[in-house]
């Protein structure tokens, strides 16, 4: 990151219109520099998070356990530093077992929706490979929306000459 000539602080002060009107070289440079900055920041954040885990992780988990919890938020004091430790609960469900349970619920005459959230989906690659008659049956339930666009800028060697 030491070879930056268009600095993030300079970019932050520019309006969207100013950025849009940069020369192709400066626009590509800005994009490259910000990508490098993001990569650097992610690595630095990962390193700091690992250091915090090394320094406070065991004590924080012990504090949670002493309060009768496996997950949640606890606070530690390390001299003047107040550390807030949050260990979220991440629950996952075995899809095959849930499908078996759902079948039993339906067989018992109950509504599956009364017991579990049900979201049905169709893989796009499967849909695209179906015969037209099958696609036609599913098409009314399908909505296509654009995702977030991304851009990658490079300077063509031929244009630079």
Structure in words:
It is a single chain. This protein is mainly alpha-helical and 161 residues long. Helices cover 52% and strands 9% of the residues. The protein folds into 2 domains: 8-89, no CATH class; 95-141, no CATH class. The chain starts with 7 loop residues before the first helix and ends with a helix. It has a two-stranded antiparallel ribbon. A hairpin with a 2-residue loop joins β1 (72-78) and β2. The protein has helices at 8-13, 16-20, 24-66, 95-107, 124-129, 132-138, 157-160; strands at residues 72-78, 81-87.
Search tags:
7 helices, flat, mainly alpha, 161 residues, two-stranded antiparallel ribbon
> How far is the first residue's CA from the last residue's CA?
26 Å
Order of helices and strands: HHHEEHHHH
Number of discrete helical segments: 7
Question: What is the radius of gyration?
Answer: 26 Å
* Physical arrangement of strands within the biggest beta sheet: 1-2
Q: Spans of 5+ residues with little confidence (pLDDT < 50)?
A: none
**Helical/strand content category:** mainly alpha
Number of domain modules? 2
Shape descriptor? flat
Number of strands: 2
Approximately how much helix is present in the residues?
Answer: 40-55%
Main pleated sheet: 2 strands, antiparallel
Question: Mind sketching the topology for me?
Answer:
Layout (H helix, E strand, L loop, with lengths): L7 H6 L2 H5 L3 H43 L5 E7 L2 E7 L7 H13 L16 H6 L2 H7 L18 H4 L1
Antiparallel strand pairs: 1-2
């Amino acid at each position: 990151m030491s070879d930056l000539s268009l600095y993030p602080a300079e970019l932050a002060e520019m309006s969207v219109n100013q950025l849009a009107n940069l020369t192709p070289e400066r626009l590509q440079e800005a994009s490259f520099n910000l990508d490098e900055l993001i990569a650097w920041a992610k690595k630095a954040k990962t390193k700091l998070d690992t250091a915090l885990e090394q320094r406070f992780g065991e004590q924080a988990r012990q504090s949670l356990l002493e309060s009768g919890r496996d997950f949640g938020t606890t606070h530690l004091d390390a001299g003047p530093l107040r550390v807030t430790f949050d260990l979220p609960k991440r629950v996952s469900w075995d899809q095959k077992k849930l499908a078996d349970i759902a079948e039993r619920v339906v067989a018992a005459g109950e509504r599956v929706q009364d017991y579990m959230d049900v979201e049905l989906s169709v893989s796009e690659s499967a849909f695209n490979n179906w015969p037209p008659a099958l696609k036609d049956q599913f098409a009314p339930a399908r909505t296509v929306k654009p995702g977030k666009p991304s851009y990658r800028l490079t300077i063509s060697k031929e244009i630079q000459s």
